[in-house]
Design goal:
Length: 485
C-alpha cells in the first residue's frame, strides 16, 4: 500500500511538472519572463484542468517513455529507466514484445490523433535530429578528452571523471532543455492570452540567480556521487532462491548443497509462517504451483508441509523447515539472505517468534534479512537492531530514505541516481534478478553492491570481464548508454 501511495505521488508530481513546462513555454511565446507569473499561471491551470487530462497524460507518458531519458530528461523523469525496462522485456519477457509493440502503436496513434497542426512534425523531426546530433558531438568530444587525460597518467583520473561527468550533464541539459522548449513551442497552438496572477517581486533576478547556482551545484554534486569506486570492489553475487543454472528445485535442500559448492557470496531463500507458528522454506503464497494443492502455508502445520513434495523443471524435492535449511547452510559455511514473506493471516507475534528462534544464528553467521513489507523492516529494527536488513522494491519510485540498511531493487527500474543517493546515506543497493552479461555490466557501472541471480557462474564471469575491460572512458560511455562493452 505504501509503494502504491508513493507511485501516486510520483505520477502527480510528474503531471504537475509537465503542466509547468507547457505553461512556461506558452509564457515565453507571449514574451512573459516572470518566474512568479509562470508559477501562478501553472497553479491556475492545474485548478482549471483538474484530473480530466490525466488519462491522456498517461498515454503520452507511455508513448514518449522510450525517448524520455534521452530528450526530455528531468530528475523526476529520470526515475523512469526506460532503456533498462526495454532490455528487460527483450531478455526476460520476449513473448510479450509483440503484444506490447501493437499496444504501443495503438497508443501512438491515439496521441498523434490528438495533436493538431500535422505540418509541424517535419520541423519537429529536424529539431530533434539537430539536437541529438549536437549531444552526440559534445559527448564524443568529452570522451576524447577523457581518453587523452588517461594517457597522460592516472593520477588525475578521479577528478577528470568528475569534471567530465559535470560537463556531460551541463551540456546535455542545456541542449536537450532547449530542444524540449522548441518541441513544446511547435506543438502548442498560437495563444493570445495566458491567465496569470498578480504575484510580483522585485527580487526575481536574485531568485533566478540563486536557482541557477543551486542547479549548478546539484549537477556537480550528482556528478561527484557518480564517480566510480577506484578500488574496483565489485558486487556480491547472490543465488536467487538457492539455485543456479537450474541445479535443483528452488528453496530445497539439494539445491542449497549444490549451490554452496560454487560459493556465491549469499544464498537467498524465502520463509513463510505456518499454522502452528513455525517457518517453512517456500517462496509462493500458494502451494498450487509447486506442490499441486490449493492450500497456503498458513493453513497447514509444519509437519503437514514437510510431507509434501515440490516439483520444478523435472526435478523433485521435499518441503523443509527453516531449521533444517539454516542448519545445513551453517554446516556448509554458506551465508544466507533470508526473505520474510508476509500475509494478512500471519500471527501478531510472527516477527517476535522469528527473532527468538533465529536472531543469534543470523548474527553469529553474518546473515541478512530482507522483505517487501516495510513493517517487517521497521519491526526488526525495533526488536533486533543488530540484524542487517534490506527493503525490497519491485519498482524504483522512492528516494532512498528509511530505517533499512540496504535496498533490493528490481534491476529493470534501477538508476545510477538511486544507487548514488543510497551510498551517500551509507546504504547498500542490491539488484534483482539479473543474469545476462550486458545488464550485469551496466549495473556494475551504476555501483551496485550485490547482484541477485539465477545463474551464479554467468554473473561471476561477467563481473570478471567488467573488471578486466573497465576504464575511465568505458565508464563514461556506459554512463551515456553507449554500448561499447
Amino acid at each position: 500500500m505504501l509503494l502504491l501511495l508513493e507511485l501516486g505521488i510520483f505520477l502527480a508530481c510528474l503531471y504537475g511538472q509537465c503542466i509547468y513546462l507547457i505553461v512556461g513555454v506558452a509564457a515565453i511565446k507571449m514574451g512573459i519572463t516572470s518566474l512568479w507569473v509562470v508559477l501562478g499561471s501553472t497553479w491556475i491551470k492545474l485548478k482549471q484542468l483538474g484530473w480530466t487530462p490525466v488519462p491522456f497524460f498517461m498515454v503520452g507518458l507511455a508513448v514518449l517513455g522510450p525517448g524520455i531519458t534521452v530528450v526530455y530528461h528531468t530528475p523526476l523523469l529520470g526515475k523512469l529507466n526506460w532503456s533498462m525496462l526495454l532490455h528487460y522485456l527483450m531478455v526476460e519477457k520476449s513473448s510479450m514484445v509483440l503484444i506490447l509493440g501493437i499496444l504501443y502503436l495503438f497508443l501512438l496513434y491515439i496521441l498523434l490523433s490528438k495533436v493538431s497542426r500535422r505540418s509541424d512534425w517535419r520541423q519537429i523531426i529536424k529539431l530533434n535530429l539537430v539536437g541529438i546530433f549536437g549531444v552526440g558531438i559534445c559527448d564524443a568530444g568529452i570522451l576524447g578528452l577523457q581518453f587523452f587525460i588517461d594517457h597522460q597518467g592516472g593520477q588525475w583520473s578521479g577528478v577528470s571523471i568528475w569534471l567530465n561527468l559535470t560537463l556531460i550533464q551541463f551540456s546535455n541539459q542545456l541542449i536537450l532543455g532547449t530542444m524540449m522548449v522548441l518541441n513544446i513551442s511547435q506543438l502548442l497552438p498560437v495563444s493570445k492570452s495566458l491567465q496569470t496572477t498578480s504575484i510580483q517581486s522585485r527580487y526575481q533576478g536574485l531568485v533566478v540567480a540563486v536557482l541557477l547556482i543551486l542547479a549548478g551545484g546539484a549537477i556537480g554534486w550528482e556528478s561527484w556521487l557518480n564517480v566510480p569506486d577506484s578500488g574496483q570492489r565489485g558486487a556480491e553475487i547472490i543465488s536467487h532462491r538457492g539455485v543456479s543454472q537450474q541445479n535443483g528445485v528452488q528453496n530445497s535442500l539439494p539445491a542449497l548443497i549444490r549451490t554452496s559448492q560454487i560459493k556465491p557470496d549469499y544464498v537467498e531463500t524465502d520463509l513463510h509462517e505456518t499454522r502452528d507458528g513455525q517457518f517453512v522454506v517456500l517462496h509462493d503464497e500458494n502451494l498450487q504451483g509447486l506442490a499441486g494443492i490449493k492450500r497456503a502455508p498458513y493453513q497447514l502445520t509444519l509437519k503437514q508441509l514437510e510431507k509434501l513434495h515440490v516439483r520444478e523443471k523435472g526435478q523433485t524435492a521435499s518441503l523443509i523447515s527453516a531449521d533444517q535449511y539454516l542448519t545445513m547452510a551453517q554446516k556448509k559455511k554458506q551465508r544466507l539472505l533470508l526473505e520474510i514473506k508476509t500475509t494478512p493471516h500471519d500471527s501478531r507475534k510472527m516477527l517476535t517468534h522469528f527473532c527468538q528462534h533465529y536472531q543469534a544464528l543470523i548474527l553469529r553467521n553474518n546473515w541478512m534479512v530482507h522483505s517487501l513489507d516495510y513493517r517487517v523492516i521497521k519491526d526488526l529494527k525495533s526488536e533486533a537492531p543488530q540484524i542487517k536488513v534490506a527493503y525490497l522494491l519491485p519498482y524504483n519510485v522512492i528516494y532512498p530514505i528509511g530505517l533499512t540498511d540496504a535496498y533490493g531493487v528490481q534491476y529493470a527500474t534501477l538508476t545510477r541516481e538511486f544507487v548514488a543517493w543510497a551510498h551517500w546515506q551509507d546504504k547498500q543497493v542490491y539488484a534483482w534478478t539479473v543474469s545476462d552479461p550486458a545488464s550485469v555490466k551496466k549495473l556494475l557501472a551504476f555501483g551496485v553492491d550485490g547482484l541477485v541471480t539465477d545463474d551464479v557462474q554467468r554473473v561471476r564471469q561477467a563481473q570478471k570481464d567488467y573488471r578486466r575491460q573497465n576504464s575511465s572512458v568505458r565508464y563514461l560511455a556506459n554512463y551515456l548508454g553507449w554500448p561499447i562493452w
